[in-house]
TrEMBL record:
Belongs to the ABC transporter superfamily. The keyword Nucleotide-binding applies. This is ABC transporter ATP-binding protein. Keywords: ATP-binding, Nucleotide-binding, Transport.
Length: 250
């Protein structure tokens, strides 16, 4: 029997200040030649602060917080994209995440070639990707451009293809950062249907959104983040009330 779960114990995550500084030779020379001293020293950013929680199979968890509160960082930490600085992180189960859709595209390669590349990034085998290639092509519905280099695509076409690839298979744990806008009305209808299907198949869902109606319709539990801290964990309706209270919203 599977024991899929998410368990965090006093998790802290810092962004290094180095990531915020210019590191090119040109910028370095500019600073050396400048007679003006920096008015503010850049410090490491404490993005997540002492986060402890358990999420078990069957739970549908919504995330709320102002921009910069830590929601996206939290999701990327769960996905293993951001390493924690201290504490303990245990995520058991196959994780599928829908954010950073442009990740893994090779601009000079065709759409078909990128289907294979992105599939490998998702941990899927070349044989499997070849078997489902036509299904992905049909869902993306970008016509002859599927055989053109990605660099010739519009932003919308890239998102459509990336969405089609990333959602072709589900996982035990589904991480979503907002509902993805990916083209015209017909495609959006298909996209929403596929997301709902993935949600139904997943054992655990973690969804970050500012859409209260979506959170109330899908989630039963809510988390409120505020300046990197988890300030509320409870029923989703009370979560929305707490979010409004913390952010002084009517």
């Amino acid at each position: 029997m599977k024991n899929n779960h998410i368990r965090l114990e006093k998790v802290n995550l810092f962004y290094s200040s180095v990531a915020f500084k210019e590191r090119s030779l040109k910028s370095l020379a500019g600073r050396l030649l400048s007679s003006r001293k920096a008015k503010h020293e850049v410090h490491d950013v404490h993005a997540l602060k002492d986060i402890s929680l358990d999420i078990r199979p069957g739970e549908r968890v919504g995330l709320l917080g102002h921009n910069g509160a830590g929601k996206s960082t939290f999701l990327k930490m769960l996905a293993g994209l951001y390493p924690i600085t201290s504490g303990a992180r245990s995520v058991v189960g196959t994780v599928r995440s829908l954010f950073d859709l442009s990740l893994g595209f090779e601009p000079d390669a065709s759409g078909r070639e990128n289907i294979l590349y992105r599939g490998l990034l998702l941990g899927l085998s070349p044989n499997f990707m070849r078997e489902i290639e036509e299904e992905i092509v049909a869902f993306a519905d970008i016509g002859e451009f599927i055989d053109y280099p990605i660099k010739t695509y519009s932003a919308g076409m890239q998102v459509r293809l990336a969405f089609a690839i990333s959602t072709i298979v589900g996982g035990d744990i589904l991480l979503l950062d907002e509902v993805i806008g990916a083209g015209d009305a017909n495609f959006m209808t298909k996209a929403k249907q596929r997301i709902l299907s993935l949600i139904e198949q997943s054992e655990i869902l973690v969804l970050a959104s500012h859409d209260f109606q979506t959170l109330e319709s899908i989630c039963d539990r809510g988390l409120v983040f505020h300046h990197g801290q988890l300030v509320f964990d409870g029923q989703v309706d009370k979560c929305i009330q707490e979010y409004k209270k913390v952010n002084n919203l009517s």
